[in-house]
Amino acid sequence: MSRLFLRGLTALALAAGAAVAVPPAAFAAPGGTGLVIDEVYVDGGSAGAAYKLKYVELRNPTNAPIDVSGWSVQYRSSGGTGAFSGVTPLGAHEVQPGATFLVAGQGNTTAAGADLPAPDVTGSINPSGASGTIALVKSQTALTGLPAAVLADGNLVDLVGYGSSTTFEGTAAAPQDPAVTESLARTNAADTDQNGADFTKQAPSPAACGTACDVAPPPVLDATIAEIQGTDDVSPLDGDTVTTTGVVTAVYASGGFNGAYLQTPGTGGTAGEASHGLFVYGGSTAFAGSVDLGDTIEVTGPVSEFRGLTQVTATSWEDAPVAGTVTPTPVSFPLAEDRREALEGMLVDATAGTWTITDNYDTNTFGTLGLAAGDTVLPQPTNEVRPRTSAYRALVAENAARFITLDDGKSVNFTRRPDSDVPVPWLTAGNEVRTGASVTIDDVLVLDYRNNGWNLQPTVPFAAGDESATVSTTSTREAAPQDVGGAVTLASFNVLNYFTTTGEDWVAAGGECDYYTDRAGEPVTVDDCGEGPRGAADDADLARQQAKIVTAINTLDADVLSLEEIEDTGTLGGADRDEALKTLVAALNADAGSQRWAAVLSPTTVPANGRDVIRTAFIHQRDSVEPVGPSVILDSPAFESARAPLAQEFRPVDGDAGQDFLAVVNHFKSKGSGSGENADQGDGQGASNPARIAQAEALVDFVASLEEQADTDRVFLLGDFNSYAKEDPLAIIEDAGFINVEQRLTDEETYQFDGLHGSLDHVFASPTAFAGVTGADVWTINAPESIGREYSRFNNNVTNLFDASSPFRASDHDPVIVGYDPGEAAEVATTVTGRAPSPVWTDEAFEVDVTVSARTGSPRGTVTLSSDGKVLGSAEVSDGTATVTVPANSLEAGRQALDLAFAGAGRYADSTGTVEVDVRAESTLVATASRGTYGKPTTITVTGAPGANGLTYATVEGRVLASALMVDGRAVLRVPGTALRPGSTPVTVFYAGGQGVEPGQTTVTVTVAKARATLSAKVLSKKVTTKTRAKVRVVVRTPGFTEQSGRVRIYRGTKLLGSAAVRDGKATVTLKRVTSKGRVRLTARYGGSSLTAPASRAFVLRVR
Length: 1104
What we know:
The protein contains 15 helices and 68 strands. It is mainly beta. The strands form 15 sheets. A nine-stranded mixed β-sheet has the order 20-21-27-28-25-23-22-26-29.
């Protein structure tokens, strides 16, 4: 049965990263008292390698044989904290005293290196050539967890961490990156549990034990699948070799599972205490490719627990004497762990359930969907209830019972070749597949346990377009945030490591970087640049990242916006700490088409405490608010491990001091790392909770001092607090009187981690500020989206999911926006006056200069110019002035008084006035011509001064083509189809004048295309033989006239059979003899003329 493991849902949902813990003492048996890893060769199969395969050599330094049945060798990447991979069982062997035991891994059997001595065991272990961790384990269950947990595991026998591995014995890892002709071997066979001292680079010397280590094969037991599974989380027959019978319910011959599921014949429909389903692993055999769905087979092999999944590794199999059938068992969720255990490996029917996507993080990588039973996502427990409570424990258990992974029957990674060239399931550029979307399961599936969690597997692997479930296509995206009201809006946005210093820039300056790459191997985003940048790999990647962020911010449209995770350029050698901030503001303004945004610049003093390569920042909209005084950064040792809060006082534009408010942007320490008291305490709050508590306390004290300095108690605390709503740090802030606005006024969350949803991003308001809050919204553009749509996953798969024009997945955190009404400022009276040029003409636009005066300040608002109630134009008033443009043809001739109306903004009152204008009319003609075709009439449309009437006519070289009356400033002239020859002809259009409008003329070029002919062909010869010459009449029809020139040619394929001139629209062609009988396909082609374009027509000639 599967190990009782509640996946990541029972653990703390960490925001990012993982703790690195190096234990102070050794955990394996030192001094030659147990089996040890004696040598590892990690470059097998590489160019120039000494051997074709990688290997791990074990040694027995004791005086007694050591039985390794049920043991395994395992591998994990250097920085990994999850389960080890490449678990290689050591089989039925007994390592003799002083003997070595050779375990062969992956490599390249066609490489030029030497063959290994016949290995004692061959497996799938594939260690990195530079850094990694290799473990000898006295079980076949993969080790997992943080380094300290691995080294303390009771099943660990020996371990070697090398290079940059974070999991190693002692105080240092073994050497990094041995040459392709070197192994890492014990120095003089030393085993002091100090990897750094015990292992050195040496010439590889693989040695196998051979038959001396073989033991008699275990007896084969006949057992039912239920007997193999048992009722516990580990098979009672673990390590035994069994023969069992089952119906094949699922086959995974491709995609990595390499096996099939069996179910006891006659079972299903209801669940018992023990499962009747079992996974059979093919190992190195052809098992998976030799069985089909519905087969009933007998299979023999050893029982083992592979990462919590009970399985039999097939050594032999054959058709069972009697065929059987099974029935899917209906299953409904939530489903407790013991009931899942009782159904492990069985065919289940979950089609009647209500399902919601709660986890799509791995969808673009592994083709999985994390589902929650019911119509809601899984809540982050500490976002709903206090940690360390029975309510917390109950919610953790409820989440685990609701959760299941819908898998694709494969273990392939769709972001790495060759599988990145295969379309990933579920996701396309045009769909959404967001968390919160409903899912309908369409097929009968297998309840499976692997990858440390429960899964619903298809009965065969599926590909994109053939998924086992249907995701609702109802869009849940919001094009913009909800209207939150208020005269001022404040928002917080974590911009996901926005760095204008790219990895490429850092390397060019002498730094070093590792990258995440796309499927072509091109760097996309930084993995590790040491103390350098954390964002885009190069300028092209930065442009993609910036495009989405800019779209998101400009659409968010907050007046005050706090930013988190933006580059502190000063820490990377730049002279200006605000360089990245200014670059983002410039990009926002370029996109907005105006100088809409401004940055709040850093203060003169930037403390060292709380300074990092990323920082907090503010930007604001110039026309809405303005900073009051310089910004202030908190200098506190509490922020040594985080980003220091940045505070700024703001005032509405044209407001007064009574409307001022304070905003403080925060970015507390993340949950991903910490040691000592800051280690993860297992209470659901993650690592570094004491650090965040201290930061909350320092923030509260900081704000108290700022309120006194700014003489205001209107305060907003914004940012990424790396704390969910019910966690200790936020309780401190709330106990100080602040109100969590988005938690009070919305039911949406800002972050998704491991399928759990909660808010790390918050806006807190002091009581006075909260009294003016008008609304709040979480704009869910990021957290519900697949990470595959992020710039950092550009070109990860052949299916392109990236859309630079969309704000969706601009970051991993959703922005929070709050509306705020700071109250009214005292009203200020205004006077509006205007000045216009004299005279003005009806057919010309003109400008009116407007001045708005007030006893104090520079009025802002909008001025509108109108005539008898008709609005002529308007303009924004800035610094008391505006210019209104009156469009041409807006006014009739005569002296007029135009009305001015000023609508004041902020505290400036409305006012009205007039401006005198002298309007005169003059004639203006504009002519446009439709594109004509010879033989068909062409239209010339003429417009004149508004209200103009009179005769209009068109001429060419004195010849009148057409005429018409202009009525109310418009005339339409119809030029006969044969009046102009094909080509472009300048035509002069005259207006004779009338009703006070002066005569005028203009020129328009009329373009006439050649006529389009249609051909028809008729065979005139009554009987055509291979010895006669046929006559064919071809008629060239043209609209509006009869064609008199050109030639018609008749072809058979490319062979010319005859031609004739066109007269009166016809041509009679005498053909050369056609020597083949039957229906012969010919083509008549008219070559065109000065009036008509070429044309062709196919026809059939019957030859007897």
